[in-house]
Amino acid sequence: ILLNATVPDELRRRRRTSSDGSGAISSMELCKELVSLILGSEPDSAALLLNLVDEQSHAPYWESLEHETQLSLATIRIAGTTSLLLEDEVRTWVLTQLQSSIHSEGAAGAQMIPNEWLMEIVSACLESCGCDVDALRQDTS
What we know:
Layout: H1 2-6, H2 8-12, E1 15-17, E2 23-25, H3 28-39, H4 45-50, H5 67-74, H6 88-103, H7 115-128, H8 133-140
Antiparallel strand pairs: 1-2
């Protein structure tokens, strides 16, 4: 909650406006480090993070993020687990992204999902089912 109040822009990787009117986007690496710090702090920290409300938009944390930031944060690994994918809100978002990508493939104006992200999501799903993904990676190399 303290981070949400003191560094809300960095926690969401959004443009921070300075006093002279110029703005710079917080780095993705800083955002990922802050979220990783939160997720690694306690077992229920993912739920606590997702329950944060943005003071500017009054939107829940996940909805206050830009698409690129959501893609990046969804696959953060803490102690070998993709903690945010264990949360209903993020899983529902991922499923929506996959469905949208399948149904709009090749359509003009469709939002592209990077192949690397898709591979990371599939790996995370297989790992959560107990599959030895490292062995699968070695077999395909």
